[in-house]
Amino acid sequence: MDTFFISHGAPSMSIDETVPARHFLKSWREKVLPEKPKAILVVSAHWETSNPSVNVIDGPNSTIYDFYGFPKPMYQLKYPAPGAPALAKRVVGLLKGAGLGPIKEDKARGLDHGAWVPLMFMYPDSDIPVCQLSVVARKDATYHYEMGRALAPLRDEGVLIMGSGSATHNLGAVGPDGGPIPSWALGFDTWLTEALLDGRYEDVKRYEEKAPYAKKAHPYPEHFHPLHVALGAAGDDAKAELIHHSWTNQSLSYSSYRFNKA
């Protein structure tokens, strides 16, 4: 099973049919991954904890509306995918085995919008077991890459490992759709794609010093670290592929990537 990083953009994609990435995600099973995963592990930017945490849910996942001031229909959407307690326990064991503990098991938390918004288009039947893994506050990209490396065995077990964040994420610098893309957003996004396709993964791990406009594109790293987990899970010799590229809000990149073994 290949690993993926999906730029999920604004939660309004859930109801806004004009967002190009929405149509990309709806074509997922036909054009990207026809093979149905046995389970899905989502590393979402919208769950940030002091230590790695996994939701261990026996029964359907609840739908978390972790956004404010959006249209009422968004708060009526549901994605009751079954939990994946066996996978969650496996994740705990792999992370502990790699010395990345302690690991918290959260038995109440459902799926945040970084998980359920893309998944509702990718797998609309909500019939695949899903669990989430948090990103870890105050840990760097290399740490998250090592988290991914620890999770690599899941790929051979039919588990889809998906990082969900954003290629660029500076909500204080967004603008109207259709406006010119700022040089900082275009510069970082272009650098990221070139670095990944060239296999310069050490540079991607050290993006804060290697990438142009890194701090402008990601004032905080939580939307970028899911990429490092997905990349680490694919392995050092993985090949990267750009599978989608679009923009909304002038500076919000939806660049999404597939990582597979050479």
From TrEMBL:
Pfam families: LigB. GO terms for molecular function: ferrous iron binding; oxidoreductase activity, acting on single donors with incorporation of molecular oxygen, incorporation of two atoms of oxygen; zinc ion binding. Its cofactor is Zn(2+). PANTHER family: 4,5-DOPA DIOXYGENASE EXTRADIOL-LIKE PROTEIN. Keywords: Dioxygenase, Metal-binding, Oxidoreductase, Zinc. InterPro entries: Extradiol_dOase_DODA, Xdiol_dOase_suB. Belongs to the DODA-type extradiol aromatic ring-opening dioxygenase family. Residues 3-259 form the Extradiol ring-cleavage dioxygenase class III enzyme subunit B domain. This is 4,5-DOPA dioxygenase extradiol-like protein. It comes from the Eukaryota. Signal peptide: none annotated.
